[in-house]
Design brief:
4 helices, alpha+beta, 4-stranded antiparallel beta sheet, 9-stranded mixed beta sheet
């Protein structure tokens, strides 16, 4: 009898640990800025969005956008409301977006508009997720990287790219 209880307790423990490892995912390729992918070549970014505020080397210590870890120089192309980061050997990724009333660019997920007006409830419906608190990390399906969405006063305020260190 005691062995059965021990096996049951161990089974429930393993099941609980496995459940905690699962995380919410999205298809990152469904995120668009002005109808374009969040991953673009430098030339496309500069042609579409024209002159940036600045171009600089971010010098991240770790992660997928880290020169030290990846062995390539990375550059950020910064505009007023968003920033792309990447290098000449790969596409640049839309790393950060600030959702404010004055942002003139359209951001969509599966053709559904997301903006500073998007509430948590609307976000949950659009993305098919549940938000606890004022932030949510959504991993890209089949990848190790993710996007962090932040909310202020119940409305979408920021999107940030995340990669593991």
């Amino acid at each position: 009898m005691n062995i059965r209880i021990l096996i049951l307790v161990l089974f429930l423990f393993v099941l609980n640990v496995h459940a905690q490892e699962k995380y919410q995912t999205i298809d990152g390729s469904s995120l668009k800025i002005e109808g374009l992918s969040f991953e673009l070549r430098r030339e496309v970014i500069l042609k579409k969005f024209e002159k940036p505020l600045r171009i600089f080397e971010p010098k991240y210590e770790c992660g997928f956008l880290s020169e030290a870890e990846q062995g390539n120089k990375y550059y950020s192309i910064e505009y007023k409301y968003f920033k792309f980061t990447g290098n000449s050997k790969a596409e640049y990724i839309l790393e950060e977006i600030h959702f404010v009333p004055t942002m003139p660019h359209t951001i969509t997920f599966r053709n559904k508009l997301i903006s500073y007006k998007t509430t948590k409830k609307e976000f949950e419906t659009i993305f098919g997720v549940k938000i606890d608190g004022d932030r949510i990390l959504l991993h890209q399906m089949g990848k190790d990287d993710a996007f962090i969405f932040a909310f202020v006063n119940g409305r979408l305020s920021k999107l940030g790219y995340w990669s593991p260190c």
